[in-house]
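Porphobilinogen deaminase
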Amino acid sequence: MTPQAPAKLIIASRESRLAMWQAEHVRDRLAALYPECSVEILGMTTRGDQILDRTLSKVGGKGLFVKELEVAMAEGRADLAVHSLKDVPMELPEGFELAAVLEREDPRDAFVSNDYASLDELPPGAVVGTSSLRRQSLIAARYPHLVIQPLRGNLDTRLAKLDRGDYAAIILAAAGLKRLGLPQRIKALLEPELSLPAAGQGAMAIEILSGARSDGVDLRAVLAPLNHVETAQAVLAERKVSRIFGGSCQIPLAAYATVQDGQMRLRAMVATPDGKRSAHAEVAGAAGQPEYLGEQVSELLAQQDASAILAACRLDAAEDA
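Tokens:
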């Protein structure tokens, strides 16, 4: 039985080109499912979009990209918000929930350069741009001869900084480049064995207010057809690892799960920003127990003194603040 959709739905979204693409994708999916429902997009600028001269780890973390969208929902100006899941904090504010996770795009990191074909080709002293401590750590561990510099801004801004020569190369999420029709900018894809993805990378999530609506519409049921079960299972395991270790932009932490034939493989990593200390772990099991697998891999990391590694990360962050 098809759930009853309201006459109108408003999607809150950041105004970057990628965020709007994601919101438009959800709008079009909903419009196809519920042709009687008018679906509109409320574009907004968040603090994460406004503060570009400092790394996220120093200005408040991932929540800077979602707070204004949550306020719009709380005030009744929007019914749902569409996010890149890797930008969503591990703990949502009281009263909010993730109602659906869409099928994952390519979760890998992408090497982007106008002059070089891969990280292996970069000469000593070449400047690599990345906004992620995770990517910084993984690159520093394998390529200590490279110089890693912060890279902020939306995807188009980052590409423009590369094109004007600020960096020899930059590392971006492959998913964003593919969604915006820019796969030709990718010179090489970094396989998980080299650059383990962040929790939720490549996945989109829909956030809503919890509880009953005044009009009686079950918004979770309305959005259920957009939920991709295997992706939802995978990211639940990944986010469990991040939650256990207090995952934030101050911590180089990776967690990546794949699901096939009801079985899940979950890999995770924590490291210091300079890449000199790290812990890696992997587990496999039933995909229907994602949080249990997340706990298992976290225990294996803890046995490798992951807590000491993360304590060193937090100390570095406090000294830089």
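The first strand starts at residue 8 and ends at 14.
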